[in-house]
Design a protein that fits this description.
The protein is mainly beta. The chain has one helix and nine strands; from the N terminus they run βββββαββββ. The protein has one domain: Hotdog Thioesterase (Thiol Ester Dehydrase, Chain A, Roll).
């Protein structure tokens, strides 16, 4: 088992994790096979605020979707988000360090169930999420 650094790829147009999208976030992740966990450290500018310097809730959901989506690599499948639920517990500030962690809960056939959390630099839990992804095909 290993730790994989997942960096934005120059041919990937994904808004969240690709480098080919000039407006994208270009998120990087660390995938720990043994712990079955993905981690990301992000700091987003004020351009992604809802208002008052608080990270837009849709961007928070996107961060969770991206982090949990990287867990699909554990199964070497392409999968799509079927359900995503976010509990917003505290405001997440723009221009501050945030830590995302995503872990696997279970797999039932093609259904992949994951959970994730977002913490601030002080370790306070800001939000949590659950998602169900559906495997479409082996990764190409």
């Amino acid at each position: 088992m290993a730790i994989h650094h997942l960096e934005p790829q120059p041919d990937n147009p994904c808004f969240g994790c690709g480098a080919a999208n000039p407006l994208g976030l270009r998120l990087s992740f660390e995938l720990d096979d043994a712990a079955r966990r993905v981690t990301a450290r992000v700091r987003l500018p004020a351009a992604y605020q809802g208002s008052g310097g608080i990270l837009h809730g849709g961007i928070t959901a996107l961060l969770f979707d991206e982090a949990m989506g990287k867990l699909n690599r554990l199964h070497d499948v392409r999968a799509v988000t079927a359900e995503l639920s976010v509990a917003y517990l505290r405001p997440a500030a723009c221009e501050e360090d945030l830590v995302l962690t995503a872990t696997e809960i279970s797999r039932d056939g093609r259904n992949l169930n994951y959970q994730a959390e977002m913490h601030d630099a002080a370790g306070r839990l800001l939000a949590r999420a659950h998602a169900r992804f559906v495997a479409l095909a082996p990764r190409a």
